[in-house]
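Justification of computing resources. Each target in the renewal requires a structure prediction run like the one illustrated here; the chain below, 459 residues long, is used simply to show the kind of job we budget for.
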Amino acid sequence: MAAPWIALLIFFAAFALLHWGKVERLIVMLVSCAAMLFFGWILEFYSPVMAVRAISFDSLALIFGMSMITDVLGRSGYFSVLAGKIGDYVHHNEQLAVVLLILMTYTVSLVANNLTALMIVLPVALPLCRAQGVPTTPVLVAITVAANLGGASSMIGDFPNIIIAGSAHLHLKDFVSGMMAPCLILLAFTLLFFASRHSFERHEKRMGHWDRRELFRDIQQVWADRLGKVRISEPEVVPLVDHGLHQLGRAVLVLALIGYFLADGWHWRPAWIAFASGAVLLLFGRVRSESLLSAMGMMDIAFFAGLFILVGGVQTAGVLDWVGWLIENLSMGSNVGRLLALMWCACLLTPFLNAGPATAFLIPIAKSMIVIMPTTGNAVWWALSLGILAGSSAFLSGSTTASMAVGQLNGYLGRHPEMHLAHGPSSALTSKEYARWGMPIMFLFLAFSSVYLMIIGGA
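Resulting structure tokens:
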């Protein structure tokens, strides 16, 4: 009986250290995996062979492929020019601008990923808020939620769906048919929610004028940080675009998307397509040796590999049987009840574990549910994805996108202290302030998603 408690202690100790933030996350994951394997060997519930089998290599291949595509397009300078054009187009009308930026965030999240979408949109949104006097908090929350929605609509849009796709061997068209329609409806609800609260109206003092050179400085600094470069000093008024890199990255992205759509009919695994795409860009994308690990997404790959090992230990120790028992009892034996219980469980776990880890933790439970109710098809995976989406949109701790938004805002306030001096704490995005906007969104998402699951789960 000691095995489940020890496995659970190791798992939650790892996430307590991750939330503490004082220890590098890869070190935390390495030590935690070593502890899980050691006690698994001592108590005879987990072995190195079982740990390797617990890793979803398909998910890691998808992370590798999308990381390489993002790196090449980012280094090409294309995203900087795209963001500048967006800024020039939208800055005349602040309310229209915010709506268009939200729609742009959703669209980019579909075809690239939600983190890339924020790296394009936030450097435009923050100068817009400063120049037009638009409050930053609701704008950033709305953009973050739109990034989560775009990611949830697609197989490659965020880490949770990448993990689900790799573990369940789903294809892009599965996510398009099962998740895009509800996410588009939730996107409309999001716009109506913020508009109804007059979130985008100007009520702060104008802090400046629209400065294109300043905009490009912010945009280029974001990508310099992302690609591990030194801080820039004076940017070009119009950033240079490496057309060769841009054409290569765009071509590989388009071919990968086509491949994902055709994969099911041609009996290809999406992971193969992602790995082949990443390999082509690794060979021909002129990646510098000093930024090779960052370009390949190796930090994320190593983190999630360790996470799969931890979850495998928790599963073999029997901890997930407890969670499965809880879901089964809450469901009262009905298929729809199981779907709703899984969604709510995912939603409640996400703020504590973050979106990706919460997904990995619940993957084995979702697989066991499919065995129990095979007639519901992929509805189990949509219940998991929708629950993660609701939980990640409610709190800062729920998603990497929210953390990125806070980081970008803090950096911008550091470069423009007059915003903080003029508006005080209201210019910052705190956990409490984020939850004030995010929690109503969460309950709105859960209410609609419950109706959606009742329809597809009862069919």
